[in-house]
Amino acid sequence: MVAKRIIPCLDVKDGSVVKGINFEGLREVGDAVEMGARYSAEGADELVYLDISASREGRSTFTELVEKIAARIDIPFTVGGGIASLDDAARLLDRGADKISVNSAAIARPTLIDEIAARYGSQFVVCAIDAKCIEGRWRVTTHGGTRLTDRELFSWAKEARDRGAGEILFTSMDHDGTRAGYACEQYATLSDLLDIPVIASGGAGSIADIVQVLGPGRADAALAASIFHYGQISIPELKQALRQENIFVRL
User: Would you put residue 152 in left (φ > 0), alpha (ψ -120 to 50) or beta?
Assistant: First the structure.
């Protein structure tokens, strides 16, 4: 039986972890390296670091940060934000990242997924998709949810898989930061459509929310930020609760 994964997400701006609601109203919540080390020690299965500013200076800062993270933690970690070329991906993977996440740049140039997968393998490529429901249709957005595209969630997820993405990380922009639960129906649909892991992101507010998305929602992993950053739920507590609900996780 494949274990479900618990993945803290750390949004990074200028080297510090920040959090907001719907990607707005950001405030600093801690040091990226220290928080990652703590989550690793507490039993997180993986970590995701997203450079949400991705300015030229931010990318330089982020590259140095990846080296520091790799030196401190012993669990896999994914990095994303501003990755627009094979060279961008190589720079981060060569500095110690285990996987890279592509989002806006892959929408603009889908062959980016093919290029990275061809060089490194699908297991190194996560396609992150930010989408919101508009008139019953899940529309894909870019640039941190600020730009609406003509892409549709499910067809884009299938295309990304076909191009070589090894995992899909879907964030519902309608749920992100609200702590009101995940878009479970959409994760179940994605899991039916795809033969690669689906990571759920956006809306975790309680243990019950994570039970729902890993159970009926059939996601392979649950990504969360606020509930861990603010100490609402600890990873050991969460995993024990998931085991009690017959959801297999590594303790």
Answer: beta
